[in-house]
Structure formats: structure tokens, C-alpha cells
Amino acid sequence: MNIFRLLGDVSHLVAIIILFLKIWRSKSCAGISGKSQVLFALVFTTRYLDLFTSFISVYNTVMKVVFLGLAYATVYLIYLRFRSSYDSESDSFRVEFLLVPVAGLSFLENYAFAPLEVKNHGHPPC
Q1: Is the CB of residue 9 less than 8 Å from the CB of residue 60?
Q2: Any stretches that span the bilayer, and where are they (predicted)?
Q3: What gap in Å lies between CA 42 and CA 94, rounded to an integer?
Q4: Apex CA 14: angle with CA 17 and CA 11, to 5°?
Q5: What is the sign of the dihedral through the CA atoms of 22, 11, 32 and 66?
Q6: What is d(CA 99, CA 94) in angstroms, rounded to the nearest whole number?
């Protein structure tokens, strides 16, 4: 295993867990962008569409499931569990200005027009 990938995965996992625990322990999501967390969940979902179609390793599968689970759990905490502390007026980023161009680019730059290939950004699958 590549040590840099391992360090990257571990630091990313620690950051997500810290955010999740901060929200859970303080019972507040004040100051956290719910839209950013939804975008993270969307990114993980599109990156890991191959979760049920191809197996690389146990480590890879477990990390994908953990990242997806924590991303959606964080969205749940922000928008449902602690929604009274979520400040939607301050979370003013216009998501459509990001999603529309990215969706368009994903169809222009891809390997094939199949759902699992559009996400590969123009590179053949490994």
C-alpha cells in the first residue's frame, strides 16, 4: 500500500470524524455549511459509484463505505437532527452555479457515456 494514500485517507477520516463529533457533542451545527456537506456527500457518491460493481480490496471498500456513511450522517445531523441550530441565511452559496457547469463538463470530458464512466473524468477505468 502507498504510504501517501494511507496518510491522506487517515487524515481525511480524522477530519470527518472530528467534524461529526463536534456537531454531536455540541448538539449544534452553527457555523457549518450544510450545502458544503451535501456537496461532499454528492462527490463521495459519484466517486464511489463502482462500490457494488468492482472489488479492489477490503481496505478500499471499507474506506468507501465509511466515507459515504459519515458524509450522509453529517448531512443528517445538520438538516434533520440539529436543524434548529442551522443558519440557512448565512449558508448563502449558490450551489447551482457549481453543479450546472460541472454536470455539463462531466458529459463533455468522459471515457464513455455510461453512468460509471462519466465520473472518471475522461480517463479509462483502472
Answers
A1: no
A2: 6-24, 65-82
A3: 15
A4: 150
A5: negative
A6: 9
Q: Show the cell assigned to 45.
A: 457518491
Residue 114 lies in domain: 94-126
C-alpha cell at position 6: 494511507
Radius of gyration of the chain (CA): 16
In order along its 126 residues, the chain shows pLDDT tens digits of 789 999 999 999 999 999 999 999 999 998 899 999 999 999 999 888 888 888 888 998 999 999 999 999 999 999 999 999 988 888 888 999 999 998 888 778 777 666 666 555 545 444
Place of cell 485517507: 9
70 and 99, same domain (yes or no): no
Q: How far is the first Cα of the chain from the last one, in angstroms, to the nearest whole number?
A: 16
- Do 126 and 105 share a domain, yes or no? yes
